[in-house]
Write a structure and sequence with these properties.
Layout lengths: L1 H15 L7 H15 L6 E2 L1 H4 L16 H10 L4 H26 L8 H8 L1 H8 L4 H20 L3 H17 L4 H16 L5 H14 L3 H4 L7 H7 L15 H16 L4 H20 L7 H20 L11 H18 L1 H4 L2 H47 L4 E4 L2 H10 L5 E4 L6 H11 L3 E4 L4 H8 L8 E9 L2 E8 L1
Parallel strand pairs: 1-3, 2-3, 2-4
Antiparallel strand pairs: 4-6, 5-6
Length: 494
């Protein structure tokens, strides 16, 4: 079965991985292209939190500056296209995650069922989705599986190897996304438990814990990222990118509304896609946690399943609900679901002896997951073809009708494709609700901007920005620009 599952997965990847779609992918692929165009890893998309406080000669660090981008860069350096580089990177991360999961199952004595958690992980629709998207989330699943493997190994045999694997996995997760500091805190608690409850030598455990504490914060030095308004900006923002523009007023009511919205988004599927991807993970996790709740041999497995789930919910509440945040929950869920099945079968011998029933049920579940993945592959393929064609047209349109840096007013879905289409020309983003006309005027003057993209609703804002510019500048309409995120008006500053 395992070979057939892997073959089906690879066929779906070949079918669906035809190009870019969505907004964040333009960053991850575009920033690799910037490496080629400007000689260092940077972004050509500048938000006010950076562009209003820095000189005009510097391009900002990327929005997403994480370790796996350098793996993708390596494949691009070997000659692969940037998007294909991300697919290869995600495939390798997926395979390593599967190896970790299999190792955990063997350590838990799953015997003939050791391959079942791997089969479930590979067949989960979320796994497919994050393999064909140019996003680094598959590496987070790898980090979660590595942490689970390392701590389970440390649980079974004393020694530094398992603990070091776990510590490196925690550091990798923190370097990849800030909210995994919760995992770091849980890992330090786990280290204290090893000394107090398990009788481990404090020198070894303390050395690993201190090393992790030292290594994790080095991310800020090794991987500088695009400046934002930090946690306060994230808490106060109502849209994904608000905290790159400014800091809205924070109130108890706004925090409560944001928290309630994020919690609902984390637990309740908002659309058909989330129903197909998130719900199987939540149900499998709930089943495994409940059935194994009194079994001590699964205590470490339960611990990290809960920790990664809490981290997922916290990211949705503090930042914004996105179903990709649940992917690190999938590796421990794949294992604890099978652990729950084993416990349940032990309690029901009559059912356990009907081997053919379990074979048919497992095969049916896997087929259902792959049918869902096939639907997603078809959907992704159609969207990617459409977005690729629109980006190609947009590149030619903007190359013909504009020159130099651009000022863009709009939401991220409109601005990010524009920035990708004009690489490596800088695109400076502003938001009228967070940045006054003086800010836009400063950017226009300092960067020598002659072309502006926005909507008719932004016209008065832009005119206010140009009121006091030398020579009495005016805006001349140059028609519409069609982007994958919607249409924008193009103006020439005269």
């Amino acid at each position: 079965m395992t070979g057939a599952v892997v073959a089906c997965f690879l066929l779906l990847v070949l079918f669906g991985a035809v190009g870019l779609r969505g907004t964040d992918q333009y960053w991850y692929v575009g920033d690799i292209s910037m490496q080629r165009d400007v000689g260092h890893y940077a972004s050509n998309l500048l938000y006010p939190s950076y562009s209003l406080n820095n000189g005009t000669t510097q391009l900002p660090p990327p929005i997403h500056h994480v370790p796996m981008v350098y793996v993708a860069q390596f494949w691009a350096w070997l000659g692969l296209q940037p998007y294909a580089s991300w697919v290869v990177t995600n495939l390798l991360a997926m395979l390593l995650t599967a190896v970790f999961i299999f190792g955990v199952a063997r350590m838990l004595n799953f015997a003939r069922l050791s391959v079942l958690p791997v089969v479930l992980f590979v067949s989960f629709p979320l796994t497919y989705w994050h393999t064909v998207n140019a996003l680094p989330d598959m590496a987070l699943a790898m980090g979660a599986a590595g942490l689970l493997f390392g701590t389970q190994r440390a649980q079974l045999q004393r020694g530094a190897s398992g603990l070091i694997v776990a510590a490196l996995s925690v550091s990798f997760l923190v370097w990849s996304r800030d909210d995994f500091v919760l995992v770091l805190v849980a890992f330090l608690g786990y280290c204290a438990w090893l000394v107090r409850a398990r009788g481990w030598g404090w020198r070894l455990v303390t050395s690993v814990a201190v090393g992790t504490i030292v290594l994790a914060p080095l991310k800020a030095l090794a991987l500088p990222k695009h400046p934002s308004n930090g946690l306060r900006g994230a808490l106060s923002s109502q849209k994904t990118m608000d905290f790159y523009y400014g800091i809205p007023d924070v109130s108890i009511q706004s925090l409560a509304e944001k928290g309630a919205s994020g919690l609902a988004g984390a637990l309740l599927p908002a659309n058909a896609a989330e129903l197909m991807t998130e719900l199987p993970v939540l149900l499998a996790m709930g089943f495994g946690l409940w059935v194994t709740r009194k079994r001590s041999e699964y205590s470490i497995l339960r611990l990290w399943t809960v920790v990664f789930f809490v981290t997922y919910v916290a990211a949705c509440v503090l930042f914004q609900a996105q179903n990709r945040y649940i992917l690190p929950v999938v590796p421990p869920t794949s294992v604890i679901f099978v652990a729950g099945l084993r416990v349940w079968m032990e309690r029901h011998p009559a059912v356990r002896n009907r081997r053919w029933v379990w074979i048919i049920a497992t095969a049916s579940l896997v087929m259902l997951f792959f049918a869902t993945s096939a639907m997603m592959a078809r959907h992704y393929r159609a969207e990617a073809h459409s977005d690729t064609e629109q980006i190609h047209d947009l590149e030619g349109d903007l190359a013909t009708r504009t020159s130099g840096p651009l000022l863009a007013v709009g939401d991220s879905g409109e601005i990010i494709p524009v920035a990708y289409a004009v690489l490596p020309r800088p695109v400076l983003a502003v938001d009228p609700s967070a940045n006054g006309p003086l800010s836009a005027r400063k950017l226009i003057s300092e960067w020598g901007i002659h072309y502006v993209l926005g909507s008719d609703d932004d016209l008065n804002y832009l005119r206010s920005a140009l009121e006091r510019t030398p020579g009495g500048a005016e805006l001349e309409s140059k028609g519409l620009v069609h982007t994958p995120g919607g249409d924008l008006e193009l103006w020439l500053i005269k």
